[in-house]
Amino acid sequence: MNKIDYKKELKHLYAASAKEPALIVVPTLRYLRIDGAGDPNTSSAYREAVEALFSLAYTIKFAIKKGEAAIDYGVMPLEGLWWMEDMTQFSVTRKDEWLWTLMILQPPLVTEPLVESCRAQLARKKDLPALSKVEFAAFAEGKAAQILHIGPFTAEGPTIARLHRFIEAQGLKLAGKHHEIYLSDIRRAAPDKWKTIIRQPAE
């Protein structure tokens, strides 16, 4: 049984410093993803999306582990793209107007036929309202800056502002959607220990 740690293989994307922002280039990668809208704290669509993504991601993982490839790997963390139709009005106090894409990175050996086979298998076992909405798609983010935020999501403001100032200091401007990568299991870790990579595309 071969084991692969994709967070180590892609360390420059999934490990960030809390002390200093860094510029990175994100290659085209493939994800399971779902688009949605609404306050993540109260939206049933958000909860259903998270459940569907992780259920399918784990079904794919075990299919590969038990299949001919016999490769074991850790399921990658949940990621979120966040925006509003009018980004000049984006505010943490108007979460009900937020638009989002939730994503989980997939290893290179995952294929469309495998995803569909696992989706069908999962649909027979569990009633997941958002399962049919999951897409398997490539995402090209390109040049970006990122930093690690430690603490609750509600305290991200200063970290985000610092990241934006760093981008401007590099002679670049913000481009694309605000991107967060959730490294902690918030069901188990205390909020002041939550680790979130804050990423912002730049050009």
Q: SSE order in H/E notation?
A: EHHEEHEEEHEEHEE
Helix content: 25-40%
Structural class: alpha+beta
State the end-to-end CA separation.
42 Å
CA radius of gyration is 17 Å
The total strand number stands at 10
Uncertain stretches of 5 or more adjacent residues: none
General shape: globular
Total number of helices: 5
Biggest sheet, open or closed, and with what strands and sense?
8 strands, antiparallel
Mean pLDDT: 93
What would you say about this model in short?
This protein has 203 residues and is of the alpha+beta class. 29% of the residues lie in helices and 29% in strands.
Task: Please characterize this protein's 3D structure.
29% of the residues lie in helices and 29% in strands. The chain is globular and about 50 Å long. The strands form two sheets. The protein has an eight-stranded antiparallel β-sheet. By secondary structure, the chain is α+β, with helices and mostly antiparallel strands. α3 crosses α4.
